[in-house]
């Protein structure tokens, strides 16, 4: 009896703390059934009206579209670039060993600080990026003042911060691969591209997929980078879902409506996580068969 | 010959990426050392001055940056310590015993990692104002668990799972109690892991922006929000912003370099080991 009870006792404190976080989540869910806002502190029950409003609003679909563009764009570029950097670091001996030590620096800088740094560098007239581009006849790019530019700029900041994340996971993966299949391929005279496509990539895929899942899920809920770089503008070209929720709940103080936005986003992220994690399990089993 | 040329090309590509990765940091150093009147004129030649840092650290401009820095320290350390106290037993229990609800609890914790922060923050914002926790250390430490607890539990669970249970069983045969076996055998063996995870959790707590943005206003505000305030005003003070940004990234950068060996496991929540 004592033995059966022990794990529960050990886990109770964590459970209590978890409830401390789950309680506001439940409270938020409850709030969304009311029209709770600063102008209406004694709210009426509106049931699911907040959600029906969310889904019929053009602003929501715009935000959802921007969020998907951002998440897919950032995760895709980071994956390709990160794997490339890992391959290059793995191949290069001395240079790689030196550079590897500093690979993680951007990743350890708070994303909001990274956005501030890039904001300073991307200023159209006085920023250093346009200064460096001037000799190429590109001195006056309005980086964050056009809709497309703002979205691409914020993705670029995300890429700057998080590419090292993909790279260090892929590098760890590369180092853990068995050497014998590669030796066999070399003996058979297989070319670089063939080896990469038929051996490296399939065996590396589980590692890459972990990175992709983390990056995609995190990008869906991006906030800091956009907040500091564009504040959702110009217009609403970079208003991702968390920014929209922030504007509704905190700026305009429509609490329940803002929370409804985050609940919808939460549900999407949760479903995406379930699908991806399931897929990850399948891929890991398949990779285990290859090696 | 062709192979060698390709090798050079690959190295060149690598260097190019690192220029992209490091230039912004180098540029902040330059910007932070520029005197205010040379900010926009001479780009790479200027007379360096520490005035920017003096202003930022000297509470001028009405922004108490040093206090924000101390606040960041206090709330990050607080969150890490609390998460360790409750997280280590939980991680140990879930690594050693399969029991009803353990997997569910672990996945609930993992789902925090991917939850949109505002889902919890907005209700907390309302709640905190009623309870008097808004803009307090306690309030911030409490909410930063969302960042630090899942990290600590998941990674320490993978460390405990790597230890063979025979070690503790041997200790039990030697007359140790369960508690002693945990404190004298299991815990010392994962000590390097605990140290690394604590520092990583500290970095994550330190770097968080959205919690202090919404749940603090002045008293408990942290550096990530504080650094942003230098951008405000009608005349942007680029050198001060750069100095503030750099000061705020020193702790995470130094800590990251010391725990580099453990980062892969930490960042992937134990999914990738190295």
UniProtKB/TrEMBL annotation, chain A:
Domain ABC transmembrane type-1: 64-276
Membrane topology: Multi-pass membrane protein
Residue stretches spanning the membrane: 7-31, 68-90, 102-121, 159-178, 199-217, 255-277
Pfam families (alphabetical): BPD_transp_1
Record keywords, A-Z: Cell membrane, Membrane, Sugar transport, Transmembrane, Transmembrane helix, Transport
Location in or out of the cell: Cell membrane
Protein name: Multiple sugar transport system permease protein
Species the sequence originates in: Streptomyces caelestis
Lineage of the organism: Bacteria, Bacillati, Actinomycetota, Actinomycetes, Kitasatosporales
TrEMBL record, chain B:
GO annotation, cellular component aspect: plasma membrane
Top-level taxon of origin: Bacteria
Any Gene Ontology biological process: transmembrane transport
Domain (ABC transmembrane type-1) ranges: 69-259
Protein's cellular compartments: Cell membrane
Major location category of this protein: membrane
One Pfam short name: BPD_transp_1
Membrane disposition: Multi-pass membrane protein
Transmembrane segments: 12-33, 68-93, 105-128, 140-160, 181-206, 238-259
Keyword ATP-binding recorded: no
InterPro entries from the UniProt entry: BP-dep_ABC_trans_perm, MetI-like, MetI-like_sf
Record keywords, A-Z: Cell membrane, Membrane, Sugar transport, Transmembrane, Transmembrane helix, Transport
SUPFAM superfamilies the record matches: MetI-like
UniProt family annotation: Belongs to the binding-protein-dependent transport system permease family.
Protein name (Swiss-Prot/TrEMBL): Multiple sugar transport system permease protein
Native species: Streptomyces caelestis
């Amino acid at each position: 009896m004592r033995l059966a009870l022990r794990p529960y006792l050990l886990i109770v404190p964590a459970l209590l703390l978890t409830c401390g976080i789950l309680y506001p989540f439940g409270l938020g869910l409850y709030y969304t059934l009311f029209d709770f806002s600063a102008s209406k502190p004694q709210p009426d029950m509106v049931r699911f009206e907040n959600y029906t409003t969310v889904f019929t609003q053009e602003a929501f679909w715009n935000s959802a579209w921007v969020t998907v563009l951002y998440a897919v764009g950032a995760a895709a570029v980071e994956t390709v670039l990160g794997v490339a950097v890992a391959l290059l670091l793995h191949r290069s001996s001395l240079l790689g060993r030196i550079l590897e030590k500093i690979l993680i620096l951007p990743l350890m800088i708070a994303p909001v600080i990274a956005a501030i740094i890039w904001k300073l560098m991307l200023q159209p007239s006085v920023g250093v990026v346009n200064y460096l581009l001037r000799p190429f006849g590109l001195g006056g790019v309005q980086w964050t003042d056009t809709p497309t530019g703002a979205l691409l700029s914020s993705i670029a900041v995300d890429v700057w911060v998080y590419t090292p994340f993909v790279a260090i996971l892929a590098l760890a993966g590369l180092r853990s691969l068995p050497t014998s299949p590669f030796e066999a391929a070399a003996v058979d005279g297989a070319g670089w591209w063939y080896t990469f496509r038929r051996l490296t990539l399939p065996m590396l895929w589980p590692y890459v997929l972990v990175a992709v899942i983390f990056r995609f899920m995190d990008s869906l809920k991006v906030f800091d980078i956009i907040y500091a770089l564009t504040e959702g503008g110009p217009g609403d070209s970079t208003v991702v879902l968390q920014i929209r929720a922030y504007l509704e709940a905190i700026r305009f103080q429509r609490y329940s409506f803002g929370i409804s936005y985050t609940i919808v986003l939460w549900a999407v992220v949760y479903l995406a996580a379930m699908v991806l994690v399931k897929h990850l399990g399948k891929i890991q089993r398949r990779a285990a068969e290859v090696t | 010959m062709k192979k060698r040329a390709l090798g050079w090309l690959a190295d060149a590509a690598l260097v190019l990426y690192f220029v992209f990765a490091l230039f912004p940091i180098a540029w902040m150093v330059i910007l932070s050392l520029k005197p205010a009147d040379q900010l926009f004129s001479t780009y790479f030649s200027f007379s360096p001055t520490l005035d920017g840092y003096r202003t930022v650290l000297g509470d001028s401009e009405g922004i108490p940056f040093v206090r924000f820095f101390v606040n960041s320290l206090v709330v990050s350390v607080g969150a890490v310590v609390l998460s360790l106290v409750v997280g280590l037993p939980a991680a140990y229990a879930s690594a050693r015993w399969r029991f009803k609800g353990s997997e569910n609890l672990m996945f609930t914790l993992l789902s925090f990692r991917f939850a949109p922060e505002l889902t919890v923050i907005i209700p907390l914002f309302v709640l905190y104002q009623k309870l008097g926790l808004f803009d307090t250390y306690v309030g911030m430490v409490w909410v930063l668990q969302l960042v630090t607890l899942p990290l600590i539990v998941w990674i320490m669970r993978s460390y405990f799972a790597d230890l063979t249970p025979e070690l503790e069983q041997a200790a039990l045969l030697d007359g140790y109690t369960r508690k002693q076996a945990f404190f004298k055998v299991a815990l010392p063996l994962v000590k390097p892991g605990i140290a690394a995870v604590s520092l990583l959790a500290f970095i994550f707590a330190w770097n968080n922006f959205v919690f202090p943005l919404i749940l603090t206003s002045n008293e408990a505000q942290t550096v990530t929000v504080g650094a942003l305030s230098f951008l405000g005003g009608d005349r942007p003070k680029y050198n001060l912003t750069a100095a503030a940004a750099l000061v705020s990234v020193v702790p995470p950068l130094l800590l990251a370099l010391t725990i580099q060996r453990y980062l892969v496991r930490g960042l992937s929540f134990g999914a990738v080991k190295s």
